Amino acid sequence: MMATCLRVPMVSSIPTSSSSSSSSSSLQPQQSLRRRCCSLSVNATSKSKIPIPPFNPNDPFLSKLASVAATSPETLLNRPLNSDTPPYLDVFDSPNLMATPAQVERSVSYNEHRPRRPPPDLPSLLLHGRIIYIGMPLVPAVTELIVAELMYLQWMDPKEPIFIYINSTGTTRDDGETVGMETEGFAIYDAMMQLQNEIHTVAVGAAIGQACLLLSAGSPGKRFMMPHAKAMIQQPRIPSSGLMPASDVLIRAKEVIVNRDTLIKLLAKHTGNSEETVANVMKRPYYMDATKAKEFGVIDRILWRGQEKIMSDVSAPEDWDKGAGIKIVDGF
Fold first, then answer.
1. What confidence tens digit (pLDDT) does each residue in 299-326 have?
2. What percentage of the chain exceeds 70 in pLDDT?
3. What are 202's strand-pairing partners?
4. What is the mean pLDDT of residues 225-233?
5. pLDDT higher than 90, residue 32
6. What's the rounded Cα separation, in Å, for the pair 46 and 50?
7. How many CB atoms lie within 10 A of CB 66?
8. Contact indicator for 83, 76 with CB cutoff of 8 Å
9. Separation CA 60–CA 73 (nearest Å)
10. Inter-residue contact 267 to 247 (CB < 8 Å)
């Protein structure tokens, strides 16, 4: 700017006079020259490009700002004093101050690995791995979802196995109150039996009532249980009768007995026990840990993660007594 001002021809000498008229006439050329110099400096500034520091080319805001500074710097130099508009946001045609997470274009320098769209829900991810998780009592909404997932997995591949993880109290809550009909469990059971796939069942937490039936209904040799999980079989319960007449209560009671007999037959089929044995243990709630469930035939293996071999290598008590030199006489 200073060089431009110096190129303007200057007057070699300005006469000085003590009179006021000569002094005012001599100041007019100086003021005119100063105005011309300032106007030339402003024009030179508007035409020259502002040096741009290094910036991230993937940042949309900085890229737009640099483009405006390179093409029309006067847009940035002559800023309107408007406190309602954030600085430099008006260079965009329609500034969007709010956006959904899927629409936000973030700078690569600090957020390049964030997904551009929301992740899928967890049940969908498990279903992609052919895993079905039953973690609630068997109410109609749960039954609908489980049956639909079984049908979908068979349609996707009728040869690949299906893994069912069970942590459910069956058709009752943990306090014993009925929350669903016994047909909810029978519906999932029938769907499992119609599949061509091999079904792996795993008990995690609890498998009570109808959930225990689903655990035992897995493919032979593919029924598992966690070491500290629990299984329990019990008789079906009559739903709340409310203000029903006695005849309707009797009809419900007969239906519960039919469901009980059906449950006994199915448990006897999958556990290898007789119906009399299953009926006797079901007179009262029959709890089983992993070891007892394996002995009863509900499962085939306990998932010890390597401890099953260690337990099988432990000698029997009789062998310990024999090795210690203890002789048993008449059972003592």
1. 999 987 655 554 455 556 666 666 666 6
2. 58
3. 165, 224
4. 93
5. no
6. 9
7. 16
8. no
9. 18
10. no
User: Which contacts of 174-183 are long-range, i.e. CB under 8 A and separated by 24 or more positions?
Assistant: 176/237, 178/237, 178/238, 178/239, 178/240, 179/137, 179/139, 180/137, 180/138, 180/139, 180/140, 180/143, 181/239, 182/210, 182/236, 182/256, 182/259, 182/263, 183/259
d(CA 103, CA 105) in angstroms, rounded, equals 6
d(CA 36, CA 30): 10
Dihedral sign from CA coordinates of 231, 145, 258, 178: positive
Token pair 């966690």 in the structure block, residue? 226
Q: How confident is the model at residue 290 (pLDDT cuts 50, 70, 90)?
A: very high
With CA atoms as reference, report the closest residue to 250 among 241, 237, 260: 241
CB 182 within 8 A of CB 259: yes
Q: Are 14 and 26 in contact (CB under 8 A)?
A: yes
The one-letter amino acid at 62: L
Strand (E) or helix (H) holding 231 = strand 230-233
**Token pair listed for 42:** 């402003």
Q: What is the pLDDT of residue 108?
A: 44
The tokens describing 92, both together, are: 């965009």
C-alpha distance from residue 166 to each of 48, 111, 135, 268 (Å): 73, 39, 6, 20
Report the DSSP beta bridge partners of residue 223: 201
Which residue carries 């006079």 as its tokens?
17
Helix pair 182-194, 140-156: axis angle to 10 deg: 0
Q: What is the pLDDT of residues 236-286, one digit of tens each?
A: 887 766 677 888 888 888 888 999 999 999 999 999 999 999 999 999 999
Nearest CA-CA partner of 45 in 92, 94, 5, 87: 5
Coil, helix or strand for 288?
strand
- Give the pLDDT score at 103: 45
The answer for 242, left when phi > 0, alpha when psi is -120 to 50, beta otherwise, is left
Token digits for 140? Answer: 């109609």
In eight-state DSSP terms, residue 172 is B
Q: Please give the DSSP secondary-structure letter assigned to residue 291.
A: H
pLDDT at 302: 92
